[in-house]
Specification:
Largest sheet: 2 strands, antiparallel
Number of domains: 2
Strand content: 5-15%
Shape: globular
Number of strands: 10
Order of helices and strands: HHEHHHHEEHHHHHHEHEEEEHEHEHH
Structural class: mainly alpha
Number of helices: 17
Radius of gyration: 21 Å
Length: 422
Amino acid sequence: MLTGVDLEKRVAYFHTPQAIRDRCKLLFERVLADESEHFQLDLNRLGSVADYVLTTMQTHYPSGDIPFHSRWRHFQVGSGDRPPDDAEGHRLARLENRLKDLDLQQRLRCKWDLTVLSVLLDAGAGSAWVYRDPDSGQRVGRSEGLALASFDWFWRGGLSSDPQFPLQVDAAGLERITLADLAAAFQVGSENPLLGLEGRWHLLQRLARALRAQPQRFGADFPRPGRLWEAIQPESLQGGIQAAQVLRAVLAGFGSIWPGRVSLAGIPLGDVWPYPHLPQTEVGSDWVPFHKLSQWMTYSLLEPLQQEGIPIEGLEELTGLAEYRNGGLFVDLGVIQLKQPEIAQQPYPPGSTVIVEWRALTVILLDQVATLIREKLGCSPQELPLVKILQGGTWTAGRTLAAQLRPGAIPPIQLLSDGTVF
């Protein structure tokens, strides 16, 4: 029987990028040994995938200056040809202009508030939903549309309980939000349905409870997600912060908001799923962590630190994101092959062996493609971390292929989404 100390160590382990790689590798090796009933692998095609992704990177970022794969990219959609410093037409420029006279802590609180809100609302929107940009009239769907909707909601003060400080997310502001408020902010109606709308609303309510339950992380007097930075910042900013430390803070701070996930010692672990073909020798021995949304949030929280000149260490330790664009890339280019054609013809819940295996393969294959790309370019993981390859990159390539192959750019394998997984 595991002791309390052992359980704490196990929880800490499942909150590390290393645990993601360790556990996903077990499934990767099982598929490679042809022990999966769903998939087989053709690793001879990995070189072609690397070439395709590298071409995509060079097309979109010919200078080689690739930004992070983070939520902040999506806030730039709809700006057309306006330059980034055009405060009249660019959302991010307007935000920077509003924050320029605040101190570092206040700026980071605001940006982290926005990031947490927007990432939590970023689960798959479905192919039917679109957001009409009030400024340009442009109709934007999927992740970018969700980003613009959440940004505009935040900008209008829809998540703040204090009219004097509209650009914030706080517990009281979240608690007063109704399902109708969320639907209105995202322009949802019978002709514009959004997948997982009610799940997203429940997620915001659980976020409010998590903020109030952890004053040591989010503040006792006025809990806000953005105050998480103050709870973890080092005494000296000159030495920077470890990327994995931000991930641990995200997992510890927001772990309680995820519905229907496994727990250990009463602590919800988040995006962790049982896999029946792993040996059940002790608690958690058959669990596979991914932490997709939490790592996406971490990457997105790190970007404002980078903007403020705070060094980020160990960025390459974080993993690729186990989601349908990255995973779809490997299916569409023939590295991951379906043993049964009907797998592509029906949606699966996130805990199914189909989805768990697909996500695990995606994590390992992203590492392998990243290695090939770095070898081709002659650079190190520190010079070209995975977060830039994702942006440059695998996510864009996966979406491009999906659009070429299937109406609505739907992924090759579909997930039954509750609005909280991808």
